[in-house]
From TrEMBL:
TM spans (from-to): 277-298, 310-328, 358-374, 386-404, 411-432, 438-463
Protein name, per record: Cyclic-di-AMP phosphodiesterase PgpH
Keyword Membrane: yes
InterPro entries recorded: HD/PDEase_dom, HD_domain, HDIG_dom, Metal-dep_PHydrolase_7TM_extra, Metal-dep_PHydrolase_7TM_intra, PgpH_phosphodiesterase
Family annotation (PANTHER family): CYCLIC-DI-AMP PHOSPHODIESTERASE PGPH (PTHR36442:SF1)
Organismal lineage: Bacteria, Bacillati, Bacillota, Bacilli, Bacillales
Amino acid sequence: MLNEETKPKPGFSFRKRFRLSDRWKTSRRVRLLLYLGLGALCYLLLMGQVLPQQYNDISPGKVAKESIVSPVTKVDQEATEKVREKAAQSVGKQYRIDEQLADRQVKRLETIFNEIQSHLSDADKSNKEKIANLKEVLPYGLSDEFYHKLVHVKDGEWTEMRILSREMVQEILADGVRKNELEKERDRVDRGLVTSSLGSQARYVVRELSRQMIVPNEFYDKNRTEKLQDAARDSVEPIPIRKGDVIVAAGDVVTKDQYRKLEELGFLGRYTDPIPYFGLALLIAVVLGLLAFFVRWFRPEVYRDNVKTTMLLSVFLLTMLGMKVISLGQNLEWSTVGYMAPAALGTMLIALLLDLQLALWCAILFGVFSGMYFNEGSHVLFDFRYGLVSFVSGSAAAFALSGVRNRLSIFRAGLFSSGASVLTIAALYALVPVDGDGWVLLQSLAFGAAGGIFSAVLTIGFLQHFETVFDMLSPLRLLELSNPNHPLLRKLLIETPGTYHHSVIVGNLAEAAAEAIGANGLLCRVGAYYHDVGKTKRPQFFIENQMAENPHDKISPNLSKSIIISHAKDGCEMLKEHHIPTPICDIAAQHHGTTLLKYFYHKAREQSDGAQVLEADYRYPGPKAQFKEAAIVGIADCVEAAVRSLARPSPERVENMVRKIIQDRLEDGQFDECDLTFKELDLIARSICETLQGIFHSRIEYPEEHQGKGVKLA
């Protein structure tokens, strides 16, 4: 076996075709460059978040010694309020026309005409009596001249008088009459009578009655005015102090307004940091150093594999970019958008692709950077609220993925993360006095709830890309492949039921053995399910599928050898056609390594009649197992077939058989290209023996009188 210090440890994502360039996968220099690259990118993303330089010698009326530029975009509250008030004042008073009042006045006019005609039509009364009666029913304030002319109106003019009066009153009241414009609107009656063909007496009567019916019907609408003023205020966009704006130019006299802006931007605080950017670089170095030390000491298999390291740092950078994008929306109106930071995206991807403990450690680091990203305009370097919520949401999402069974579980983890965020935000608002009203709280809770769901959606979207790019298998992908309804497994079950049963037992043996040494048990089980799928091309040539005669008895050993050996190659091709991930294809190709087909080799020698038979011609073409999981599946495959042939599989005979198979493979050099140690081989042997005891456990021999009755005692 290779020395652990010099031999690459590819893990289950090893690709044989890249062996010539595998050195980079374990190179310390490459690893250092990866961390330095991530640090540089994080530095660029966080440059705008450090505290601005402080100016304690600036005051209104003094000359600025240097230009001061805004480092962030921030709402200028005072200027915004001034513009909003100006917009509100520009809204004029709003009036409302009382349509019902206009209708009542028209109906009243009709009633007056009816009364007039009723009294004037009485021939038994004198004009004096008629006038007296009319004064009692007509509106107060009409002159004596009006009544005198009223009784002398010609009978043929009444219809035109009625129509003309109604039209003028309706028109004027429909346009609205305000109290301060009453006389002006009544004068419109005179203009309406200019073109009338009525006589002077009739015209006078129409004028006086119409003017009496014109009353104020348009009144000030306070509610509508206030609503329009509010709408005008809301229509004004917040006036920002934009990043890069020159607040004070060198040589200018500082005004009160400029001083106010400097104070809002935090330039006039008492905090001093002469080298903030160096401090930022140092902080990033510390944080990433803690990440590297954690990976090295607690997850050395990730630390030594630069493929996994690249994936880890890529997830870290992706999460940082997500936070940066969200932070761009924190300015202006959305002050609490930081609660939507996708910290759970990073922790869920790391938990699915690498390790739960590593995901929890990264959740802490994401919380640190989240506090910097959303520090509200650089008043403080860290805002603990956003850091705490990011840590809680990320940790909750990672914990929720424990025992994940399908991709829908990711969405459930997102909901769990959202719930944890909402509870934390509510607790913070109850404990810590903050600016804002109930709307700010609702906004914050909404962002917190959206953050977990947003992270879950991104995780589902990015997971497949990470699996493809880095050739990694997440537990979710493996569980999906283990579904018996997968086309290849269905094909295996229907066409080669013996091989299917064999593969299931091999999967159980391999999974237990892998977990005993800390390898990927789920990969072993799923790889075992597919390792013999190539047998479906010629199922009758494999003993577990034979129901009667053995076709190998009728063909030459060389042809039998070719058929048997081809199942590994055929299986690998079938797996690739169905886009099965590379690690499982590798298991199918490597589980026999370069082992010898002893039965057909010896049979060929017996039939050779003295001709030379080369051992190399009866070996599998390989490659040998390149990683632990492929070697374990190969051992389990050989053990299951061998133990099946035992007549009485007692525990002692089973253990001797298992250890002999492992010893033969070891001496044959089948483990030379993978990193199994002697201790691990011993653990594998013990685990397989324990599992086999559960499968081939002893049974009580039945008395003769009970045989054939179908009674099982064990």
